Each structure stands twice: as C-alpha cells, then as structure tokens.
What does this fold into?
Amino acid sequence: MAEIETEARDETPTSAILDAVEAKDTDRLTELLDPLHAADIADLLEQIAPNERRELLQLWSGEIDGEILSEIDDSIREEVIENLPSEVLAEAVRELDTDDVVDILEDLEEPQQAIILNALDRADRAAVEQAMTYPEYSAGRLMQREVVVAPEHWTVGESIDYLRRVDYLPDQFYHVILVDPRMKPQGYVTLGRMLSAQREASMKELAEDSFRTVKPTDPEADVAYIFNQYHLISCPVVDDDGRLVGVITIDDAMNVLDEEHEEDILRLAGVGDESSISDGVVETLKQRFPWLAVNLLTANLSAWVISQFDGTISVIVALAALMPIIASMGGNAGTQSLTVAVRALATRDLTSSNAPRVVKREVLVGLVNGLAFAVIMGGIGVAFYGGPMLGVVIALAMIINLIVASLAGVLVPLGLNKLKLDPALASGTFVMTLTDVIGFFAFLGLATVMLL
It folds into this structure.
C-alpha cells in the first residue's frame, strides 16, 4: 500500500506546475491543475514553499473552489484565504455545506470570518453563526444543517416522490431520517434499502438498528467513537428537547479520528500537537523547544544519579560502557508498553475494569523479557567485561529495568488519564525518565554492593 501511495504522489507534476508558476504561464498552470482532485491540489499547496504558494495563488486564484478550501490543512488555510480575492472566496464558500464553512471559519480572524459570512445567504449564515456558538471540538461544530427527513408514517413511494420533487438536497447524504410531528428523530433508512423495497413498504419497517443520536454539546471525540464503535454512516443531532437540529456524516467523524491519532503521535514524539510540514522555522522551534527543555532537565536528573556512583565507575571502568545498554533497553521496553497503552486509552479499550489485568500482563512480559536478556547480557558480561559477578549485576539490572519500564509504560498514561490529562501529552518524557533513573540506580547500586 505504501509503495502504491508513493507512486501516486510521484506522478503529480509538481515540478512542471512550479515551472509554469515561474514562467507565469496561466494557461499551462490550468492545464496541469484542472485534472487533479481537490485533495491533491490541497496537498500541493501544503508541500511547496510559501513564496511559491503565493505566486501560484496569484496566477490561479480564480479557480480555487470550496472543495479545495475544505481540503487544505488548517496550518496554511488562513494564508491561502488571505491571498484570494474577496469575490473568489465568497463564491467558493457558497458551494460548501454548513459544516465545512464552520471548519474554515474556526481558524480565521474576524475580518476573514466577516467576508465569508457576508457571502452566505441568510439561512446558511444563521446556521453557521449558530454552529459557532457551540463549544470548540463539539458535535455542534461538526454537524451540517442540510438534512433529509420524512414523516415516520410515510411509505417508500411517498418518500421517493418527495425526494424527486424537492428543490434542494445535500450533495451527499446516506439516510432519510424519520421524524414524528414534533421533529424528533425516530429512526433512519439507508438509501439502498429504500430503493430496493416496494413502493408500498413502510419506511418505519426499513429503519436501521444502528440508529443513534447525539447532542450539539457532546465532545467530538465521543461522536467519532460512536461512529467507529457502531459502524455509523451518519448520525442525527438533537437539541435538549430531542428535536432534530442537524446531522453528522461519516467523513467528518473520520476526520476527527484522524486528527486524534495524529495528535497522539505528535505529542508522544514531543513535537507539539499541531506540527505540520508547512510550518516555518519559528513555528517549529516554538513547538519543539519546550519539550527539549524538559528533556534536558530529566537528563540532568539521570546524570545526577550517575554522579552518585562516580567512585564505583572509576574503579570498574567497564560500567561506563555498559550503562547505555541498560538505558536503551529500558527506554525501548517502556516505549513499547506506552504506545500500546496510549492507543488503547484512545480507543477506550483500556478501562478501569481491565486495567489490573493489563498491568499484570505488562509486568509479566517485562519479567520474561528481562530474564531472557539477562541471560544474554550476563553471558556477555562474563565473556567480555571481566568476570561472573559483573555478569550477575548486568543480569539483575536488566530484569529490574525491563519490569519497571513495562510497568511505567502502562501506569503513567493511566495516571494522566485519571487526572483528565491527555495520556500522550507527557507520557514519553515521564517513562524515559523513570527507566533511565531506575535503570542507572539499579545497575550502579548493585555494582557498588556486589563488586566493591
């Protein structure tokens, strides 16, 4: 799959497009860009340098449409919008569903927001302004107001006739939502089941078992979990009285899941949660410097532990050569356990009910791995570093450090989650610190007791 994706990217004529931009050849630029999907154009805008992006937009801004705007990464969307003429921007946003307009507005300053809002018709503007009143990262920000409904007592024939008569339907929809006279959703029917049924069939009898509803104030992460857990395609949004106010579709839910996964990876790596390949030097420094500073402090803690045993190291110089092995093995074991735990917390597979079992499993894994590598490193210590007792010290330190690493990899994210903090936020730093400090202390402490 990775090879296929790489080949597809290589076929994108980026160099030819940049040559056309440099030559200010608008016709050639249009010829190259028109066949591309909106997502590919968005990727291109993200990958090229800022000055190239500005020049491209100056030549081709009239062709930017709403679909391209919605695909552009948040990190450069404001920059792209600033380089678009007002009339082009207005025309582009008119094509979008209300949820896509809200997604664009969230990352803009008030002047740009006003331009977009003024371009919408009265009904769409009211819907967008209402959505913007909901908390950030909530279901209300994800939902679109364009919904397809039918009275719950209608037949398939009545529903199909209605869909053919109505002037406006969303560009994409997957269900017909069945409502009672008070506009409260009672179920929904997929288009496939509706079109394959007889005209006389009752819509209510065709309703899906997967029917769920959410409220506008529900966190978007909870909404994405519901979509993933129950294999939903769309989900009605209801107010406090249970009346239909909008719908969330699978594309928006999957975007949330993708963002959550990306955020976890970036935070585990200590590069911020909004890092992008299009960021400049200053933005990248702001995201990475704080975590490097924290790492420097924790590294000094490890150095302090080592300094407490400088007498031991001066007598047995081989200890200095072996310390990186202890630290590296503990760090890798902790990262393995940590990655599994953070992912399981994100998918809600790791809960308070099964946490004891998972912790026990990780301790046993750490113990078995520790025993196995203790035998290997013990033999290496005996063969190459001067005697059987040094081999015993290495073996015991390896067992202790791998058990601690496996345990910390689970307990640290569990603890952060209990405190209502993102488990990925600082887990890596804490786990590495624990494994280094305890690994060095165990190794050098045992060497001091057993070898001197």
